[in-house]
Amino acid sequence: MKTLYAQACLDGTVALAEKELPAPGSGQVLLKAKYSAMSPGTENGLLGNHIVPLPTSIGYAMVAEVIEAGPDCHELKVGDHVVTTGEHAQYLIMDELNCTICPEGIDLKQASFWNLGHTGMYALRRSGLQLGEPCAVLGQGFVGAITAQCAKLAGALPVIVTDLDDERLASAKKMGVDIAINSKTDPDGLEREVAKLNRGGLPVIFEATGARGPLMQAAELVSERGRVVMISQVHGEAMPPIDDPIMQKGATLIGTYVNSKPFKLRRADLFIDGVWPPVMHRDLLRYCNSDVWTCDEDIQVFLNLIAYGKLDITPLISHEFKYTDIGQAYAEHVYPNVDPAMTGGVISWID
Question: Which residue, among 181, 114, 130, has the nearest Cα to 346 in the 3D structure?
């Protein structure tokens, strides 16, 4: 069968192209796209030729329906809705291990932002934030906004956010952050709020601006033995001299690249099959204990937060596009000049 997909071209534009798809092989599923998410960060890096050579397919956050399961699929069946790191495309062939099943009844538009969502969740887990600790999130793009929501759900008091855009800050307030500061119009605002806490600094600061300058501010405002958590990746900017304040305060600098942890874990177990000695079970079972939070488990948590009404990210969906308009969407909102109003864009593949 044929599928339309989005291709990032040599000149940095995005256009729809067509290709043939094979039948799903062993352990694979054929997916029909519902919604896919787009955001300026990773995709701007792709279009700028910073990640893989152009031309390339583009897109990395899809929610889709299983319409065919290949041989040896053990977890997924036809009719399941899943999220996966698939390209922007009408149909996809994916390994079932690269899919996470959606809870029943979830808003699929929100679910399509799972990849950005679990990135913020990993930042929270790496921070070790404790109930009652104040924190700041620098930058209210999609990942920064999700990080702030995760911090709120984890019991941070207060949750302070900064950004340069008033619309993003208004969305953050709508979603329940305690203090929102425009660091362009009120450059001393964060320092003033930190002083009010009378703690000698903030125990946890998340840096999610997509720039390197704010990392210096984080190093200066973090408390003794506090944690500065780096979420954003930046191409072509030098690191500010954060080593001295971090070292002098005994603070910790933490990286949060999601691929630094396992995506999924499956366990092999011995069992007694009516005879002795025990034998190895041939089925590999899901490992889901909370001593190891894999990407897959964090994605499940993110989806469940939406499904159970604990998290509503609709204020962050700033743009919606039909798949036929995908080229125009990238040209006007992502590359080469990112639309400052863009938080999260969702592409509909529903005819």
Answer: 114
